[in-house]
Structure formats: structure tokens, C-alpha cells
Design a protein that fits this description.
Alpha-Beta Plaits; nine-stranded mixed beta sheet; 201 residues; globular; two-stranded antiparallel ribbon; alpha+beta
Length: 201
């Protein structure tokens, strides 16, 4: 009998590459420093300077489902931005902004009244005391390279800290940076419907 697939949720810390093999000459840590599970691969990526939820699996079909743009499963991000977001900038992000590689899809975007409960980043973000910061929640259905950072920058709100809080219904809660856990059976069952849900405003 073929062994069951493994599906892992990992809280990727800042400064960790989304791969198991180190880059030559790089000081960045990799997934190998945290996860000792054979034959799992990341379903999607997070930049080294981004944090948060990463899904790894031994199931190649599931990996394809979660990375193929056609399936458009929602991903939720918390972005700490420099500046005071105005309604016009938020509406631009919701409608979609034009980047060098084309216009982005409409997104669900809201200003968070309170900062999310997150552990301090190591190292801390750069802060300029004369300029306010704010936290935005963005739910995207596409995953271009450094998309959230490019989107917020395009409306005059540079991202200082970026955390992926959810992939579909899978959420970051219960994990600390560098920790991982296996998905529960009901979570595995729910992954097949990720591509059928679109974010609402």
C-alpha cells in the first residue's frame, strides 16, 4: 500500500529561503534548518524578507493545484506599511493596480484598526519616528513575485513588514516562527476546494 501523503504547515521566519538547498555564498537559512521530513516540497513561495504561513506537501498534484494561477485560491497577508493609508489608495488596491507585468486582479483590502498579534521580527523593521505606520490586510488570488510589496508601493505605501496569515482556510494561529505541524484530516479534505472561493470586499 502506498504511504499516505504528508502535508505540513510551517511558520516561516524572516530571513529564511523557501527551499531546502542553500544558495552558494548566501547567509540565509533554508527550510532544511527547520523541517526534517523527506520528500516534502513547498506549495508556493515566500521571499526571504517575508514571514508567515507556508504549506509543504509530498503530493505533487496538490502542489500543482495550489501554485497554478488558474485555480486562484485566496491568500491573506498582513502588511505593515509606511504612511497613513487614505480611502483612495485602499480603493486602488481593491480595484487592481498596474504593475510592470500587468494589472493585478481585484483584491479584498482593509485597514486594520489594531496591529495583528505577532511576535517581534528579528531583526526589527526600520522605523522613522516622523512617519506613521499602519497595518493592512490584503486577500489576493494570484501570487506574482513580491506582489504585495509592489502593490502597496504603487499607491505610495511602502511595505515594512509582510506576513502571510492564511492560505485558503489554513491559518497561522497556533504556530510560532520556525514551528510546523501536520495538517489535520479535515484540513486536508478542505484543500481541494481552495480554488473555488474568491475573496469578497
Amino acid at each position: 500500500m502506498r504511504p499516505a501523503h504528508r502535508h505540513i504547515l510551517f511558520y516561516k521566519p524572516f530571513g529564511v529561503l523557501t527551499q531546502f538547498t542553500p544558495e552558494p555564498g548566501s547567509s540565509y537559512r533554508t527550510l532544511k534548518d527547520f523541517i526534517d521530513v523527506p520528500s516534502v516540497y513547498a506549495a508556493g513561495r515566500l521571499d526571504a524578507d517575508s514571514e508567515g504561513l507556508l504549506l509543504l506537501t509530498t503530493d505533487g498534484n496538490l502542489q500543482h493545484l495550489l501554485t497554478d494561477p488558474l485555480h486562484a485560491h485566496p491568500r491573506t497577508y498582513w502588511a505593515q506599511v509606511e504612511g497613513a493609508p487614505q480611502d483612495e489608495a485602499l480603493e486602488q488596491l481593491r480595484r487592481g493596480v498596474r504593475l510592470k507585468d500587468g494589472a493585478t486582479r481585484p483584491a479584498a483590502v482593509r485597514l486594520l484598526e489594531l496591529p495583528p498579534e505577532l511576535p517581534p521580527r528579528d531583526p526589527p523593521i526600520r522605523v522613522r519616528h516622523s512617519i506613521p505606520t499602519a497595518w493592512l490586510e490584503l486577500i489576493l488570488t494570484e501570487g506574482r513575485n513580491r506582489q504585495v510589496r509592489r502593490m502597496t508601493a504603487s499607491v505610495g505605501l511602502p511595505t515594512l513588514r509582510l506576513v502571510r496569515a492564511a492560505i485558503g482556510e489554513l491559518r497561522l494561529e497556533g504556530l510560532a516562527p520556525g514551528e510546523w505541524r501536520d495538517l489535520r484530516p479535515e484540513e486536508v479534505e478542505g484543500m481541494g476546494t481552495m480554488g473555488s472561493r474568491r475573496p469578497s470586499r
